[in-house]
Specification:
Layout: E1 7-11, E2 21-30, E3 35-39, E4 42-46, E5 54-61, E6 67-70, E7 78-84, E8 89-97, E9 102-108, E10 114-118, E11 121-127, E12 135-142, E13 156-162, E14 170-180, E15 186-187, E16 193-194, E17 200-209, E18 216-217
Parallel strand pairs: 11-13
Antiparallel strand pairs: 1-2, 2-5, 3-4, 6-7, 7-8, 8-9, 9-10, 10-18, 11-12, 12-17, 13-14, 14-17, 15-16
Length: 223
């Protein structure tokens, strides 16, 4: 039998993309049957796994509070982001692009260069007509159910661009996020039907930003 975990996390608002979690000590083992599961249509019985053990939740644990912020070193466009409890600092995997006032992620491009591209929304391609002949790109932001509230709108969106035949990998285009998209959307491939955008908030693509304007990095090895 696998070792019982010491702690467990429980989402405060399951289904919401920005939900936080509560943390508990793992309690005593409980019977695997009967078990019930909360769904959008109510509480229903569920079949337990024969290879799993089930434990109750113990006391709630209050995690140590951390602040998160970026550095402000003079003369540097990309700044480190740290978590801190007041005594210890831990580096985040993201950086802060001070020129664009947005967090960014180190990304290797098809030409071999490394640039800090915005931690951005995703671009999805649909059709704007019922015959599925005119493509349209939109920024799709996962909002979850209406009870989650309005999602944070990303300042930028990244579109993956395939390379020519015979080339390996892919490239990217970075766009500003534009105004809300309110037109009709359709999708294939089995016929042409209205696109299912449930749980999504859609935006137009704004201005295209050349990759050259984002911070470039050079990979070095410390001696």
């Amino acid at each position: 039998m696998c070792t019982k975990p010491a702690f467990a996390a429980q989402q405060v608002a399951p289904g919401c993309p920005s939900t936080t979690s509560r943390y508990f000590r793992v309690g005593d083992v409980i019977a695997s049957s009967p078990l019930f599961q909360q769904t959008t249509t109510g509480c229903r019985p569920t079949t337990p796994s024969g290879t799993s053990a089930y434990y109750g939740l113990g006391d709630q644990v209050a995690p140590a509070p951390l602040t998160r912020g970026h550095d402000s070193e003079p003369g540097r466009t990309p700044q480190l982001i740290h978590f801190s409890d007041g005594a210890t600092r831990l580096r985040d995997s993201l950086l802060y692009d001070s020129a664009h006032a947005t967090e960014c992620r180190e990304t290797r491009l098809d030409d071999g260069s490394i640039r800090c591209l915005p931690d951005a929304g995703s671009v999805q391609t649909f059709y704007s007509d019922a015959g599925c002949t005119q493509t349209v790109d939109v920024v799709a932001v996962n909002a979850g159910p209406a009870s989650c509230g309005a999602p944070k709108v990303p300042a930028f969106a990244i579109k993956s661009v395939p390379l020519p035949a015979g080339a390996c990998g892919s490239s990217a285009e970075v766009y500003a996020t534009g105004a809300a998209y309110t037109g009709a959307l359709f999708q294939g491939p089995s016929g042409c039907a209205s696109a299912d955008t449930t749980g999504l908030v859609l935006y137009q693509l704004g201005a295209l930003h050349p990759l050259s304007e984002f911070p470039q990095a050079t990979l070095v090895t410390d001696p």
